[in-house]
Amino acid sequence: MEKLVLSGHGVRLEPLEKRHAHDLSGLVDAGMWHGMTVPLPDTADAMVAHLERLAAGGAVAFAVVDATAGTVAGVTAFYDVAHDVRRVEIGHTFYGRRWWGTHVNPAAKLLLLSQAFDVWGMERVALRADVRNTRSLAAIRRLGAQPEGVLRSHRVAFDGTRSDTAYFSILRSEWPAARAGLTARLAELDAPTAPTVPVRYVPQGEAAAR
Prior knowledge:
The chain is 30% helix and 35% strand. With 210 residues, it is of the alpha+beta class.
């Protein structure tokens, strides 16, 4: 089976594997993990367990690599992929604090959204966040995603507390404007340019050898 690799604008999204766990565990802390539904994966073993949960849930998950430094910056994923009705969600995203406010998140989202709309032909891409996670909510809004409402008492954190989930989406008709907005943001952030957003597939063996 082949795995998806996406690259452009200074980031590379490569298949998320256990070998990434050590680097990723050093990026998380209790403050940034507040409201998450799974325990803080701040050790290599805990991060491996987190990555295994993503895989078991059917997520198409990626390690986000800062291509300039060659350093793992975080994680993002497609999930609830439904090709038959042309919809997908993007989430399970986190980045180390040093990459907050940089080109990394808009570049990663541009790659994912381009894959969803331009390659897979999706009609709808959804995103969601805990209503307490104001940083994530602001990031989703900056993508051009439209608010759809709040699901009350929708999430259960690993400490047993319940909270609401805010839902957003981008439809195919809204994608050109969202793409233009992301491209403009990347230009403002002086992100490395690319003539296109490359999409390629590599065998598992090649990805593992990176």
